[in-house]
Amino acid sequence: MNPIHIAGGGLAGLSLAGALARRGVPVHVYEKSHYPRHKVCGEFITGLGAETRHVLELDPVLDDVCQHRRTTWFRGGRKLFSRDLPAPALGISRWRLDARLAERAKDAGAQLHEGAFQSMDDAQNPGWIDARGVSRDAKGHAREPRWIGLKAHLRRWDAESGLELHLGHRAYAGVSGIEGGRANVCLLLDPGGCPPAARRSLESVLGAVGLEDLGGRIRVADVDPASRTATAGVLLDHSRAHSGTLAIGDGVGMIAPFTGHGMALAFRSAALALPHVEAYARGRLDWAKCCEAVAREVSSSLGGCKRWARWLHPFLLTPWGQSVGAAGLHSGLLPWRPLYRLTHHA
Ligand SMILES: Cc1cc2nc3c(=O)[nH]c(=O)nc-3n(C[C@H](O)[C@H](O)[C@H](O)COP(=O)(O)OP(=O)(O)OC[C@H]3O[C@@H](n4cnc5c(N)ncnc54)[C@H](O)[C@@H]3O)c2cc1C
């Protein structure tokens, strides 16, 4: 049997490793950090399909998570609208989710190497999979913004609904209920919208991008200091996949985070890769064909919702876009459910 090596032990890497190991495939995961660990993420999952849950055996991991049925959107502290979600969003911290996936992959027989940074110089080698997440160091188009993400857990949160989205100046923040009665607040920021001097903390950034109101609510919500995390240089929708290599999850481009759909797509790409990688491991498919098949399926199955999300993203970030979007949603000219369907994989 050919061994499989996965660089990156996030959602895509761990779920694929667990599924391969359960099928008797020898698999190694190289993760630069250690579990459990906090990670910048809105920590709510929308649009995770039943088939993906089944193929990757995710039910034991997700059975007890929070379920959010309603979302409320705000702009500059003012409530814009509240809507029921077409299907419940799942609220779980990355601290818990990734650690659970790692445990299950290990139990199934996968070899987990924590604290193991992989340069992926071996990316062209057969059996090596790039699951290192979103691009930070890639050379994107010069005009593409490199986003900053910040997050923190709140111990006492007075929620308007399980899921809140707050639109600011070239930034937005999500607040989602997670386990233990906590909430997670996560901000995505275009650095051009916030002077470096204001980037001292989540609260100071919220003030600088017109979200003082949310900052005020967070100040009384008892922030868990150990959960404060930040990341910079994130390129959205930037794919590292190229001929002869196999990338999954954000490695093939991250969908805009407002959708809450990136985690579901990471799982979906792992589920799509699984039969081809297993066939390679068993010697039934050569590596080049395996890479080709995965790239084709991932792109045709997941490309559409990413394109729609990319098209809608600017509406969330500029005053004119927010005004047009809010008026459209209020009047029904922009129908909520069809927009949700377009930005979520069926
Ligand atoms: C600000 C922000 C908010 C978001 N909010 C949401 C949300 O609410 N809901 C949602 O569904 N999605 C959200 N996303 C997107 C979501 O986080 C990703 O789509 C998802 O995590 C992708 O999973 P992945 O396995 O591809 O990558 P990750 O989960 O990022 O895993 C990659 C792993 O690789 C490891 N790694 C990286 N480089 C190396 C290396 N060189 N060697 C070894 N290991 C390495 C990392 O430590 C990490 O553990 C958000 C993203 C951002 C930036």
What can you see in these coordinates?
34% of the residues lie in helices and 24% in strands. The chain is built from ten helices and 13 strands. The strands form two sheets. An eight-stranded mixed beta sheet has the order 3-5-4-9-10-11-8-12. Helix 1 links the parallel strand 1 and strand 2. Helix 1 (11-22) runs parallel beside helix 7. The mean pLDDT is 93. The structure holds flavin-adenine dinucleotide (FAD).
How are strands sequenced across the largest beta sheet?
Answer: 3-5-4-9-10-11-8-12
Number of strand elements:
13
Number of helical regions: 10
Spell the H/E element sequence: EHEEHHEEHEEEEEEHHEEHHHH
Instruction: Report Rg.
Output: 20 Å
Low-confidence parts lasting 5 or more residues at pLDDT below 50?
A: none
The helix content, as a percent range, equals 25-40%
Please indicate the percent range of residues in DSSP E strands (runs of 2 or more): 15-25%
Which outline best applies?
Answer: globular
